[in-house]
Design brief:
328 residues; alpha/beta; six-stranded parallel sheet; six-stranded mixed sheet; 10 helices; 12 strands
């Protein structure tokens, strides 16, 4: 399935040209290079969202771009290739790229780099992070409102801090709405293993879970499809994943990587460089949020509760835990 979707993407790129801007919009020579995260293009999630942001930058700002994938984990080689190709800014997508990006950035101090989903102290790296826990809190509320069995589940791709944000927010939001809700969590150890996602989901469902939320990239695709097959509800992540399983996906926790990437491109377009050392996007600036709620129908009281929680998170009245072991 993944290879098929990637094939479609590549065909589209051959037709449109990912590094081609229309003549009337090509008003500069700015170029962005990006190293995608492990799952690569066609993950229906994190990578595809970043790619969407670059396409918007190409179409609206005339900024050229190209991308690299490193399915074998050889990040440094791909980053070296991007440096040699002389991009104005090189983006490393995902926490797994951080070590290689920092090593490469130190080697080329005059090259500007951006790290998405990680925090770096290296001088020529701008860090972009998201408050995934805030959007996941709202999604946890939806899960608790939807569940009939009183048991919901979370599937993570890797047991790392950024995925803890999703898990913690989901748990706290669910318990905020229903203190007695039962929540199970498991990590697949991979972001591109649909069979692992499906296996965890099946095990959950056989043990009474009737709503599954994943932060597992393409692994989560397998979980959603298994939820559809076995007749329970699920939630997507990063982008609106409703179209993966239209009878199952109630909503998705939107992590607007496309907007963050476009912001970087717009800054380059306007200023010629990125001066900021870091950006952090949450509910307050539309960095995260919920997709439309479909499949089910919430009561007016439930909808009002979600809106009130969102207001309280933005105002700071509700503080959602980001890391395991931290208290509110």
């Amino acid at each position: 399935m993944k290879k098929l979707m990637v094939g479609f993407c590549l065909i589209a790129l051959l037709i449109t040209g990912c590094s081609t801007a229309s003549p009337e919009k090509a008003k500069n020579d700015y170029k962005i290079g990006i190293l995608l995260s492990d799952a690569g293009l066609g993950d229906e999630s994190f990578n595809d969202s970043a790619f969407k942001g670059l396409e918007k930058a190409r179409d609206e700002l005339g900024i050229l771009f190209d991308y690299k994938e490193a399915p074998d984990g050889n990040y440094e080689q791909k980053l070296e290739e991007l440096v040699a190709e002389k991009y104005n800014v090189i983006i490393g997508l995902g926490f797994s790229v951080q070590e290689a990006l920092e090593k490469t950035a130190k080697k080329y101090p005059d090259q500007q780099f951006v790290l998405i989903d990680g925090q770096s102290d290296v001088a020529n790296i701008t860090s972009i992070t998201f408050k995934e826990q805030e959007g996941s809190f709202l999604l946890g509320m939806v899960a608790a409102m939807t569940s009939k069995t009183g048991k919901i589940g979370f599937i993570g791709g890797a047991n790392v801090p950024v995925i803890h944000h999703f898990e913690n927010g989901f748990i706290e939001g669910a318990k905020y709405y229903n203190p007695n809700i039962e929540i199970v969590s498991e990590y697949a150890g991979s972001f591109d293993d649909t069979e692992a996602g499906a296996a965890i989901a099946e095990r959950y469902i056989k043990n009474g879970v009737d709503f599954i939320y994943h932060a597992a990239g393409f692994t989560g695709f397998g979980a959603i499809k298994k939820a559809e097959e076995m007749g329970i509800y699920a939630a997507g992540v990063d982008i609106d994943q409703f179209y993966i399983a239209e009878k199952t996906v109630v909503t998705s926790m939107l992590k607007n990587v496309d907007q963050a990437v476009f912001k970087i491109a717009k800054t380059i377009d306007e200023d010629g460089k990125i001066s900021e050392k870091s950006f952090s996007f949450g509910l307050a600036d539309n960095g995260v949020g919920l997709a439309d709620i479909r499949v089910i129908k919430l009561t007016p009281e439930q909808q009002a509760a979600i809106e009130k929680a969102k207001e309280d998170i933005v105002s700071g009245k509700i503080k959602v835990t980001a890391e395991k072991g931290n208290s509110q």
